[in-house]
Design goal:
Elements lengths: L20 H14 L6 H10 L2 H17 L4 E5 L2 E6 L2 E7 L9 E5 L14 E4 L4 H15 L1
Antiparallel strand pairs: 1-2, 2-3, 3-4, 4-5
Helix pairs in contact: 2-3, 3-4
């Protein structure tokens, strides 16, 4: 016996949301960035200024460390987050904790980052607070990643 699949819009009130409000906001931001918005240090600094206290403090310092350590990286926004690119390729980004309601901010690296180290290496780092040791580690990672 052949079973026909029902085609059309589900009208069930129990219909599940596929994306959270934060995810939808990030997708809208990425769409705008693809149209040329959010490129440049002024836009990155403006986005950092909008962040809540802890994230803003971390993001400011991460921005300072990255721009000092790898001046060849260009600041830009990526999914509405501060990011840094080399010749148009994303190298790293700062994800504030408030962005997706996580317990800590993070610093992530793309596959274009030159961090390869054997068969397994980290591509994102939790950043609950900024310390001199964290600054030193970020500077070294970004220099290596920017190659």
């Amino acid at each position: 016996m052949k079973v026909k699949k029902k085609v059309g819009k589900t009208t069930s009130p129990a219909r599940k949301k596929v994306f959270s409000d934060e995810e939808r906001s990030a997708m809208v931001a990425r769409y705008r960035e693809s149209k040329g918005e959010g490129v440049g240090e002024a836009e990155v600094l403006a986005k950092i200024a909008e962040m809540k206290d802890t994230d803003r403090t971390l993001a400011k310092r991460v921005h300072e460390v990255i721009t000092a350590s790898a001046p060849n990286l260009q600041p830009k926004l990526w999914y509405g987050m501060p990011a840094y690119a080399k010749q148009g390729d994303l190298i790293c980004h700062f994800q504030p904790a408030q962005k997706f309601k996580t317990r800590y901010a993070s610093l992530g690296f793309s596959d274009k980052a030159k961090l390869d180290d054997g068969d397994l290496w980290p591509v994102a780092y939790a950043l609950p607070k900024m310390t001199p040791a964290a600054e030193t580690k970020i500077a070294a990672l970004v220099k290596k990643a920017a190659g």
